[in-house]
Amino acid sequence: MDWIGVIRHGESTGNVAREVAESGGHEVIDIRQRDADVPLSEEGERQGRALGRWFAAMPREQWPDVVVASPYRRAVDTAAHALRGHPRMLVDERLRDRELGVLDLLTTHGVAARYPDEVVRRRRLGKFYYRPPGGESWADVALRLRSLLRDLDGARVLLFAHEITPFLLRYLLECVPERDMLAYAHNSTVPNGSLTSWHREDGAWVLEREFDADHLVEHGAEPTETEDATTRSA
């Protein structure tokens, strides 16, 4: 590879439900589907179509050689809107969102109310290594991303994934230290439909674009900054 980019999926109904639950002080996020089946919201569909118009206007030589999407519906549908008919569009489970185990569907308030011991354990272990019962740590997600990166074979590779992915790619590609990466994630939100990308320069990966969502505005959609529970609540 000499270029790699990651687009966060369009806004999902789960993102919207989480915002409602967190702002309302609820313990549980009202989502009926399993996480893998959560669809795009109406705004997310608009963001996906805007991505499609952006890529349609782009010279084909600037398209990625390989497109790899998380198997979760919100990522697959965003990729399909953006690059429908691309000859090498793959789905890989190693790009899936972080699994939260017993903390799934709980807000920050819900975790504190129902699992206070886990809040203490998380504080002691730190966010990167803390693994909820039945779930994954950030380090676990980094491990499967590292495995995926070894298997990618295109010169230009584009990923469609989740909010956690660009943070961990900075950790893996740029060797950003754990503390710095987590501080960066704490103070940043990845807009839905935004692009973060890197290119190789003298053998090293150099950050090229960071959470860039100008293409959405240019093609008729508004970027949203709804957060994922996987990067915030647990």
UniProtKB/TrEMBL annotation:
Gene3D superfamilies: Phosphoglycerate mutase-like (3.40.50.1240). Keywords: Glycolysis, Isomerase. Pfam families: His_Phos_1 (PF00300). This is Broad specificity phosphatase PhoE.
